[in-house]
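Minutes, project huddle
Topic: does the predicted pose make sense with zinc ion bound?
PN asked that the exact inputs be recorded in the minutes so nobody has to dig through chat later. Recorded below.
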Amino acid sequence: MKSIVPDISQMPLPIDQWTQPFWDAAARHELVIPRCAACKAWHWPPAPFCPKCRSQEQEWLPAGPARLYSFSIVHRPGPTPEEPSQLIVPGLVEFPEAGGMRFVAAIVESEVDDITIGAALSVSWTPKDETNVPVFSLA
Ligand SMILES: [Zn+2]
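Predicted holo structure (tokens), as shared on screen:
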């Protein structure tokens, strides 16, 4: 049974001046992570200062390949009692080439029995407001 794409229509996006570059890139189907321009430390979530050296200079670079660090399986009841439950898989997605930064995203349209920690993931996009929300599936 495959995981579904969760309905995010009612979910507000966390857009502010610090996350705006992420969402601008997502609108172009580009996945980026901030890195300090001074000390080259990656950081997540986006913040006004580098957590290591306090510099305010940052660059947004491609996140690179994604892999699954951890995940959970949520069983949501089907639309009617006769229909099977739907499977939602929130995952902690890791970017080894972006300093090992991680964020939570949905693992979608993947055979749930095949989902394993360390699995290679590919990104796809769910349109939302003026941008897109990244979701991932087994590569
Ligand atoms: Zn720094």
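Observations noted during the meeting:
- The chain has a mean pLDDT of 96.
- The pocket of zinc ion is lined by residues 36, 38-39, 41, 50, 52-53, 55 (CB under 6 Å).
No decisions taken; revisit at the next huddle.
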